[in-house]
Structure formats: structure tokens, C-alpha cells
Amino acid sequence: MSKTGKASREPLIHMTKRKEMGWKQAWLIRIASIVAALIVCAVVTMATTGLDPLNVFASILEGSFGTERKIWILGKETAILLCISVAMAPAFRMKFWNLGGEGQVLIGAWLTAACMIYLNGKVPGGVIILVSLIGSVAIGAVWAGIPAFFKARWNTNEVLFTLMMNYVAIQLVAYYIIIWENPKGSFTVGIINQSTKAGWLPDIGVYQYLLTILVVAAVTVVMYIYLQYSKHGYEIAVVGESQSTARYVGIKVDKVILRTLLVSGGICGLTGFLMVAGIDHTITTTLAGGRGFLGILVAWLAQFNPLAMVLVSLLLCILSRGAGEISTAHGLNPSFGDILTGIILFFIIGSEFFINYRINFRGSDKAIKEVKNAGREGGLR
Hints:
Blueprint: H1 3-9, E1 13-17, H2 23-48, H3 53-65, H4 68-93, H5 101-118, H6 125-154, H7 158-180, H8 210-229, H9 231-241, H10 243-248, H11 253-280, H12 291-301, H13 306-330, H14 334-356, E2 357-361, H15 365-380
């Protein structure tokens, strides 16, 4: 066959898997993607609204950093999203697709609210806090441990199981909200123990959310050490790479799955405790607000690194608060801010493709060589 015939069948574009990329180069690609996203957002803003894009971008920052109160609210929202994301990290690193974060947070919040309501006036406030803390972590761990047990024992589908547990938690909370209604018929609980503040986490000085932020910071550091330097973290990584390999080297896969989900669910339960006892002091069926699913995105973008999740969580919360500020400051449709947020997230997610894959065009000797090497490696495997 002629060389011309071979060339005619050669694809225009070769996509090859990168072996490994340094963290500096990876972050340069991510930063470049954000710059490109801002350029696209500027074009969209000018084309659809006629506004100065710089003023719109300034509104995004104003929504997060405009006042001291806005900064504390940003810190609080970042902390809650970060805590859920950190909880998702070990399960997803193990390739256990835990989509039950919403339910695990909500069930922890429910138990905290129950302790605050039923123990008020019967035991000291410090005891209520302690019981709520232990109970919320325990019930969150159990809520995640149920699908983990079935997965480990009978290899059930964890995606469907954890999603189902979300709906069970929502209906359980809805049932008790009707019982706890205040005033009756409002389908709301109201502020729990507003007069006595029994079971409320104390403020540190004049700062309402500082204790919550510090607790989440501690959990993040501990989880980083747990995943990177502990034996359990090593076992999670091995099970995630290959369960067969893990069994071959003597790791008890079923035990690792159950233990990891107990940790993941326990941290989600802790998040529910912080939201009720430390922030909202009430409970609704929408308390988690979709953060259980958003936390998955944060964990994935950060490559399951808890320290990197701090930056990703902060960015997403800035975009979320900025979207609302755009609508208020410029009188735009509330959806316009969400459009800009979607564009930025699209570019950030897309950058992961270029970090993991290389695009080469027809005629590139390097591309042909990489395709052949990839084929040989595949044949060996």
C-alpha cells in the first residue's frame, strides 16, 4: 500500500493520554482557562446587555467582599461547601460514587434539631451541644454506611442506593417539621430555642461564624493528612485503582469500603450539626441546598486534594454570591449571573481535559509515536 494511501486514512487529530503533568503546568492551564472564560463572559455581557464587562466583574467581587458582613457570609458558605466536599473526597477517591451527601447532611441536621427541641430545659446547653455533635456524626455515618454495607456484601449499585437515601432523609425531615411546626400550620420550625439559645454553638467574640470556619479548617487539614500519609489513605487509593490488586496485596476491600463511607457520612453529619447548631438554628427540607451534589464537583476539580478544595470552594461561592449581586446592581434578570457562572465553570471543567490529554494534529511525528506507544501499552495490558 502506498504512503499516500496511509496518509489519507490518518486522522486529522490525535488525542493521546498524558503520562503525567507537573502541578505547576496543570495550574497554569487552569488559570489560562479562567482568563479565557472571563474574556468570553465579557463578550457575552457586551453583546446581550451593552454593559461594561469590568463593571459587571466588579459587581461579582462586590457581592463577596463589599462589606465585612459579606466577607463573613462568604467565609461561612465556603466552609459549609468545603466540609461537604472534604466528606466526598475519600469515597470518590475509592471510586465509590456516593451521591447521598444531601441526605447525610440533612439527617445530621435532623438529629441536631431533635436534640435541641427535646432536650431544651432538661439538660444544660453544653450537654445538648455534645449530644447533638456525637449523634449527628454517628447518624451521618450510619446513613452512608447502609449503602456501603450492601455494596460490600452484595455489590449493589451505590449510585441508586445513595440517591434513594437522600429521598428517605428528605421525607423524614418533612414529617418531623409538621410535628415541630411553630406556629402551627406554617410548615416551618422557626428559630429553635431562640429565647434560651440552648444547643447553639457559642460565638467567638463578636464573630458569629468563626467557630464553624475553624472547625471546618481543622477537618480539612486532618482529612488531608489522613488521605496522604495514613495507612487508611493508602488503602483507599489502592482500592480505587483496582480492587483485584488490593485483594492480591492483602487489603480487605469490604472493610475499606465500609470504613471509608462511615468517615464520609460522619463528616456530612457534622456539617448538618454545624448548619443547625452554629448557623441557621432551624431546619428545612432544603437545608443542604444542593451542596451535596456541588461538593462532588469541588472534590473532582480539586483531584480529591482537601487543600486544593479550599480554593475551588471559595471560587464557586464567590461566583454564586456575585451572580446575585449582578442582578441587584444592574437590574438584570437573575439568570444572567448564572449564565456567567456556567460559562466560567464550563471552562474550568474543560481545562481538566487538556491536563489529562494531549491534542496532536495530522503529520505530527510526536503524535504518531504517542499513538503507537499507547497501542503497545494497551496490548501489553
